Amino acid sequence: MAQAAENGSGDAPTHTPEYAGGSGAGRVFVLSGDGHPLMPCHPARTRELLRKGRAVVVRQTPFTIRLKDRTLAESAVDGLQLRIDPGSKGTGLALTDEKKETDTDGRVVTVRRGLFSIELQHRGDQIHHTMGQRAGYRTRRRSANCRYRAPRSNNRGVAQGWLPPSLRHRVDTTFSLANRLCRFAPITEIHLERTAFDTHSMSAGRRLHGTEHAQGPLAGSTTRSYLHARWNSACAYCDAVGVPLNIDHVRPRSQGGSNRITNLVLACVPCNKAKGNSSVESFLAHRPDRLAKILGQLKTPLRDAAAMNSAQERLTEALETLGRPVHAWPGHLTMANRVTTGLGKTHTLDALSVGHLDHEGGAAIVRFPDRVLVAKATGRGSYARTTPDKYGFPRLRRSRTKQHFGYVTGDLVRAVIPSGKWAGTWAGRISVRARGQHSLTTPRGRVNVSHWNLQLLQRGDGYGYSTRPEAPLQASPKNS
Predict the structure, then answer these.
(1) pLDDT, tens only, 266-312
(2) What is d(CA 441, CA 447) in angstroms, rounded to the nearest whole number?
């Protein structure tokens, strides 16, 4: 074990017949004395270097050390690959290396090992919600005291390549983590899954060909006439006829509903007012047969697919600025690699499977990290100077200073509480207060800690970190 830790591996040799692949400890990032990235090492090797005083801790999350007695010129650096599986809600990033080995039949095969995995959780939905909330506040302020004020001219153009903030956030956070990994690890190439989603075929439920893409459900008709024909000019909730009918969203826009024709029904004025902003499940809870009929027309939202179509090209352009070659691979190849290797379905295992694998030649994925670092985008605070109530009126005045007693909200700290219910040593992220009694988030809950009892471990970078176990293997990857 000591010898395995000394050579930076810590895993069983993959060329032995009794080894069938599996999981292992995630690697620790290593920097040379002059700050250049070296090959990551095993945690056991890291503990030994720190115990002997040959290394110092540079960063807590992801854990990174710097060697005192070694430079880049004195080290052997093979290079790693960064593999990215982008998603709308989350993105998987995996660091891998590929080596040549001789299997039991004497063939030279390529084996891929996962060394480190990150699951990035986006907050695009939160940004979309807050942007809509801000627009509502501005509309109220504009019209509250100026009833007859003309609306703002909608003649403002956008720059080339502009994306909405919720989509730009997905590109920026993925690029930020990729850039950080390039500083901590010797990444020589980037492999990205890039898939174009045919939203029209997804909406139709089958693959469309040729001119079928130009013939949707509203071809030769309008929204109102289509709904009148579908619902026989009657209210979808109470079957009222001969009365004025409004177009109602089954899933309210405030709850993520879209303007797709499958999310629209006809509703009389009393039903439309009674339903309001509530969900259709609660509104029709006493009529399960009518609820089942309306829910039967709903289809899976295409917002995530549309978001990926819009952001993928911008993400590729951003990654190309890192100075590493970027290789794009289709999604069906990732799925084939993952299924053939017998891995579970997660963002990080999908990222591990991105890229070409010669299965006929014996290539396989033989290892993945047993724990995944989960990075949740939390932001860096708000620009607002006041805290509004639900109607948009100012309720509290926020401090113009974000740093109090040397700490900022989001900093990773260690708290030593001398006495009381929470006596002991705790580590976590803090929310600062002007009076110096900061709030610390721990696995057991939140506790108020004086700034005198805190020690800074790492400055906040807009992410909250945690870990989770990786999905188990479904089959032996060495034998696939």
Answers:
(1) 999 999 999 988 888 989 888 888 888 888 877 777 888 888 888 99
(2) 7
- Structure-token pair, residue 303: 């917002």
Dist CA 382 CA 11 (whole Å): 45
Q: What is the pLDDT of residues 47-65, one digit of tens each?
A: 999 999 999 999 999 999 9
Question: Which of 331, 332, 338 lies closest to 474 in space, CA to CA?
Answer: 338
Sequence length of the chain is 480
Question: How far is it, in rounded angstroms, from Cα 404 to Cα 417?
Answer: 19
Q: Please state whether the peptide bond connecting residue 186 to the residue before it is cis, i.e. omega within 30 degrees of 0.
A: no
Q: Pick from 325, 248, 250, 244: which is nearest to 284 by CA?
A: 250
Neighbouring residues of 375: CB distance < 8 A, sequence distance ≥ 6: 118, 119, 120, 121, 177, 463, 464, 465
* Residues linked to residue 85 through DSSP beta bridges, in sequence order: 92
C-beta of residue 367 within 8 angstroms of C-beta of residue 113: yes
Handedness of CA 166, 168, 170, 172 (dihedral sign): negative
Pairing outcome for strands 364-369 and 22-24: parallel
| pTM across the whole model | 0.83
According to the 3-state scheme, what is the secondary structure of the chain? Answer: CHHHHHCCCCCCCCCCCCCCCEEECCCEEEECCCCCEEEEECHHHHHHHHHCCCEEEEECCCCEEEECCCCHHHCCCCCEEEEEECCCCEEEEEEEEEEEEECCCCCEEEEEEEEEEEEEECCHHHHHHHHHHHHHHHHHHHHHCCCCCCCCCCCCCCCCCCCCHHHHHHHHHHHHHHHHHHHHCCEEEEEEECCCCCHHHHHHCCCCCHHHHHCCCCCCCCHHHHHHHHCCCCCCCCCCCCCCEEEEECCCHHHCCCCCHHHEEEEEHHHHHHHCCCCHHHHCCCCHHHHHHHHCCCCCCCHHHHHHHHHHHHHHHHHHCCCCCEEEECHHHHHHHHHHHCCCCCHHHHHHCCCCCCCCCCCEEEEEECEEEEEEECCCCCCCCEEECCCCCEEEECCCCCEECCEECCCEEEEEECCCCCCEEEEEEEECCCCCEEEEEECCEEEEEEHHHEEEEECCCCEEEEEEECCCCCCCHHHC
